[in-house]
Design brief:
The complex is a heterodimer. The relative contact order of chain A is 0.35. Chain A has strands at 5-7, 10-14, 19-24, 29-37, 43-50, 55-58, 61-66, 71-76, 85-93, 100-102, 106-111. By secondary structure, chain A is mainly beta. The termini of chain A are far apart. Chain B is globular, with a radius of gyration of 13 Å. Chain B is mainly β. In chain B, β5 (44-50) and β6 (53-57) form a beta hairpin. The chains are: A mainly beta, B mainly beta. Chains A and B meet through β4, β5, β9 and β10 of A and β9 and β10 of B.
Chain lengths: 112, 114
């Protein structure tokens, strides 16, 4: 199965609520990145967390990384309708190729 | 919108046609990438170029042929494609081909093979 799998596949919330998305991976990593994609468009880099980091913040985004569980979470606080998009985690594996591997994504819908 | 442009944005081609996708980055980056995004499948890396040299070819069929004439331009030449090749083709660039490099994506070319 693939490196980097997001959960849930789809999430629908009301504006103002928090949204939490999870990502699991299978092999050891150097870093994990989160990207956002608006419908049918290119991806936008959100945040990178290294394997020796446990938590990182950027504006309304909070990312955690648990290497013992091989999982990461992305929390978007006080969501807005403009946050509606698909969110992908991507991992850069250690010593196994030189590429980012993306998960299948979580489709987030924020209702106004 | 992000310094990476792609043309055309939409392309419909028959299986016997030959066409090319173009990507241009205005960011002074040294690495460029082609990705394929199909419905209900994860984003798949196709090719990586670093300093105009191909450094990764992720088991892509030969009907896809990349070209990187300089560090700002990347092409994907298409010939005798199959309907299953219909997808969104995304180009990306990064400062360098390193593990910490943030990738900047273009808007993509929506390809339909009939």
């Amino acid at each position: 199965s693939q490196q980097g799998e997001e959960d849930p596949q789809a999430l629908s919330i009301q504006e103002g609520e928090n949204a939490t998305m999870n990502c699991s991976y299978k092999t050891s990593i150097n870093n994990l990145q989160w990207y956002r994609q608006n419908s049918g468009r290119g991806l936008v880099h959100l945040i990178l967390i290294r394997s020796n980091e446990r938590e990182k913040h950027s504006g309304r985004l909070r990312v955690t990384l648990d290497t013992s569980k091989k999982s990461s979470s992305l929390l978007i606080t006080a969501s807005r309708a403009a946050d509606t998009a698909s969110y992908f985690c991507a991992t850069w594996k250690n010593n196994a190729g030189n590429m980012l591997t993306f998960g299948g994504g979580t489709r987030l819908m924020v209702k106004p | 919108e992000t310094g990476v442009t792609q043309t055309p944005r939409h392309l419909v081609m028959g299986m016997t046609n030959k066409k090319s996708l173009k990507c241009e980055q205005h960011l002074g980056h040294n690495a460029m990438y082609w990705y394929k995004q199909s419905a209900k499948k994860p984003l798949e890396l196709m090719f990586v170029y670093s300093l105009e040299e191909r450094v990764e070819n992720n088991s892509v069929p030969s009907r896809f042929s990349p070209e990187c004439p300089n560090s700002s331009h990347l092409f994907l030449h298409l010939h005798t494609l199959q309907p299953e090749d219909s997808a969104l083709y995304l180009c990306a660039s990064s400062q360098d081909w390193t593990r910490d490099a943030e990738q900047y994506f273009g808007p993509g070319t929506r390809l339909t093979v009939t």
